[in-house]
Amino acid sequence: MRYIIAFDCGTTAIKAVCIDRETGKLTSGKAECQLFLPQPNWAEQDPAQLWDALCAASRECVQKAALNPQEVAGVVICAPWKNIIPLDENGTPLRPSMIWMDSRGIEQAARLNNAMGRFVATGQDYFARLMWLKEEEPDIWAKAKHIVGLNCYFKFRATGNFFTECSDDFIHTPNADVQAYYSEILSHTGLTEADLEKFPPSLPSTACVGKLLPEAAEALGLAAGIPVLGGFGDLNAITFGCGCIEEPMTHIYLGTSGWLCETKNNRVDGYGAGNFTLDEQHECTIFSLQTGGRAYDWLISQFYAAEREELGDAVFDLVNKDVRSVPAGCKGLIATHWLGGELPPLAAKNAKGLFFNITDQHDRRYFARAMLESICFTHRLSLEHYTKLHGSKPSSIRVVGGGAMSAEWMQMMADILQIPVQVPANPRYVGTMGAYYCALIGLGLAENYADAIASQSLGEETVYTPEPDNFAVYDKNFSVYSKLYATLQPLYDELNGVY
User: What are the pLDDT digits (tens) for 453-467?
Assistant: First the structure.
């Protein structure tokens, strides 16, 4: 069997990628996803529409690759974590999915924190949103036979079977310490034993969860009977795809959201904005950006609307050229990317975007560069927590995702973090490669992730070396940036409320 089909599902688009095991060639198809923001703090998607998008991306991929579906060895699906999708006894969604960026559980989080006697959740937390669903939509909760995440829903549509995996399972986990933590939280959520039976069992991400059903195979443009591997969340796919498989390897991801992530053997209390289970042996600490690339995309849509209409995706080349023409530090202009608030280390959930210190010398080029610099500043805040724990910075850091395609941005990142930045040959496809490695192991074609990674020729990486001449101006701007939220918090509280 020559091919593996990997699905890399983001918040706003789904990629289907065919990997040719003989040549290493990648052929992709893509479909856009609809995101609904029906009211403040709500973020929803239609699971059926997402499945249709996944199928459309698959058919485009298969057509472009001109492959024989009978030569596909396996299918693996990776999708964003922490979706909450209630399904009836037939597997039909009872309401739109509450996705990872939904933060409606504000009241529930406050009660949960009070019951726990310490801070454990914001309104965006998975458990707080579960409580919201049970309390605010009791009829839907009562009708729900299954409550699943997006990866599980896709696997059900593909195979008819309900299995999740450890990175998207917050009811049971292989790590005893994490299980004790989950059990403590669940004891304060109001969920009963009958409620917990709605959640699917877990299998290892490399396990085969079933085979493609005829109806699913037809929709995907594939053949019935192809094995479907468990897969995992997008966080795991990207972590494995960029090779961060052992403690204390680190990476930065720049996509719609973003993060700085460290692979660890066990979680450390009070460290990071959150954690996720990488596999049965490893945990990961994550410092998240609520709005990373999404804020930059917003800026381009507002400041470069005409050019975007004319040039399409080529507008990014124009913006990169503009950014390159602006000096480091933007002549004192500082932006914030907090369009939807931010998580720790900023802990600025009620904050919103800002351009600070504007003068008549600043045109749209400066605003674009300042937005990119602000995202780098937040990663520097995160890196300070890493340094405090370990006593030193990492010697270098790998940066992946669509944002890593910009040489201008990567040089900023190296200069602001003051460490070398490594960008792999195909930074957009690291999630796909993580899924591919998972499939190789599940199909018995590799023993483990180290073996799977070593078996592939990934091309040359690009290394961006810090330019010391820029350190002083970035240190000055970073000092101001890191004080902005604390200084403005009373005003954000007054305008937006405290949450």
Answer: 988 876 789 999 999
